[in-house]
Each structure stands twice: as C-alpha cells, then as structure tokens.
Amino acid sequence: MINVLLLEDDPILSKTLIRYLSQHNIKVKWAKNGEEAIDFSFENRYDLYLFDINVPLLNGIDLLASLREADDLTPTIIISALQDVKSVTKGFIAGADDYVKKPFDPEELLIRIKAKTAQLKQRLKFKDIEIDLQTKEIYKNSNPIFLGDVQKNLLISLLQNHPNPVSKEELMLLLEKPTDLALRVNIAKLKKNINIEIKSVRGVGYKI
After folding, report:
1. CA geometry: angle 127, 129, 132, nearest 5 deg
2. 20 to 30 Å CA-CA from 146: which of 33, 64, 140, 155?
3. In this model, does residue 101 exceed pLDDT 80?
4. 125: pLDDT confidence band, cut at 50, 70 and 90?
5. What Cα–Cα distance (Å) separates residue 126 from each residue in 123, 155, 205?
6. Closest-CA residue to 47 (of 136, 95, 115, 140)
7. What pLDDT is recorded for position 103?
8. CB atoms within 10 A of CB 195
C-alpha cells in the first residue's frame, strides 16, 4: 500500500483521484488547504506528496519549500493548472520531483506515482526510522543519523527480520571482532544512539 498526501481544493477532482488511486492500492489522505497539509505531514509519514499550487491559506510551492527546509525529502509531484514556464520552474526550485499540468489523465498520474515510488522498494521503514538500502543512509524523523558500519549493519539486519529475532551467530558475522561482549556492547550503543528498543531473546539472539 502506497500512502499519498493530496493537497487539492477542488472536491470533484480530489474525490475522483481518491476513488481511482484506491483501486490501484494507493491510499490518499486529502488536505483541502496548505495549513491542513502541514498538520497531516507532521502527524504521519507519506510515501509521496501530490500538491496543487493555488490552494487556500498556504500555496503548494511555499508549503513544499518549507518541508524541504525541514529536511522532509518525501517525493513530490505538483499538479497544477499553471502551465507557464515560470510556474513550472518555481515548482522545481521549491523541490518538486515532477510537475503535471491540469487537466491530466489519471492513468498518466498513476504511472508517474509508480515511477516516483519505485525507489521505496529500496528503502526500509520502521516507525520514525528510514534506511536507504542502496546508500545505507539512515534517517530518524527525516533527520540523518550517523552510525558506524557495524551498528548500521546490525540495525539493518534487525529491521529486515522484524518482528522475528536474529540469531546471535548471524549478528556475530557483522562484527569486526566477533565475541559475545562485543555484540552486547554494540547492541547497547545502537539502542542509545537511535533510541530504539532491542530485546535479547534467550537462546536465540536479539530482536526489535
């Protein structure tokens, strides 16, 4: 299921998109103005933003610029009736990943959404933690977290196997000098560095 935040003040278009996208395993949260969209973006994490520009209270471009300044890197597609080069340029400068001009075919939008969210398969998410499995960059609440290679690999292994435990033997393979003490120390440091609960499973190993 792909979670999308839609900022759009046209109720007919919004309801049409919600209906159409829901048929393609895409869940849409609808914000009718920019202020509402800000609240929703703080309350939940989304896989993609769909922002109109001319909406009440706070326009889509200013909203997107503010989110990018707050290190919110959620892929964003702007959908707008503004078709001039200046408006399109402003959208990309604000941080948009794509720009779709109204009127548009919902099927075309679906293709663009799938293209922008394809990279999600290469991302690992757990609560407020997100890991890019290609670069192994780690984010907590969209803020970068810097860990050493050992702790980083331990975290990835634990998250990939959640909610099941990872055996002590498997985790040992991720250590530079594998010992019970080294594993306990690294697990303790990992818990402290990212503020996550990691439990020891007697006779097995560890799990998040």
Report:
1. 130
2. 64
3. yes
4. confident
5. 10, 11, 20
6. 115
7. 87
8. 10
CB distance 100 to 50 below 8 Å? no
Rounded Cα distance, 103 and 88, in Å: 15
Using a pLDDT cut of 90, give the percent of the chain over it: 17
What residue spans define the domains of the chain?
A: 2-121, 147-207
Tell me the β-bridge partners of 123.
132
Could you tell me which CATH class the domain 2-121 is placed in?
Answer: alpha beta
Terminal CA-CA length for the chain:
23
Q: Decide if pLDDT at 121 tops 70.
A: no
Question: What SS3 class is residue 4?
Answer: strand
The model's pLDDT over 8-58, given as tens digits with 9 standing for 90+, comes to 999 999 999 999 988 888 889 999 999 999 989 888 888 899 999 889 988
State yes or no: cis peptide before 106, omega within 30 of 0: no
> In b/e form, how buried is each residue of 2-19, taking b as 16+ CB within 10 angstroms?
bebbbbbeeeebbeebbe
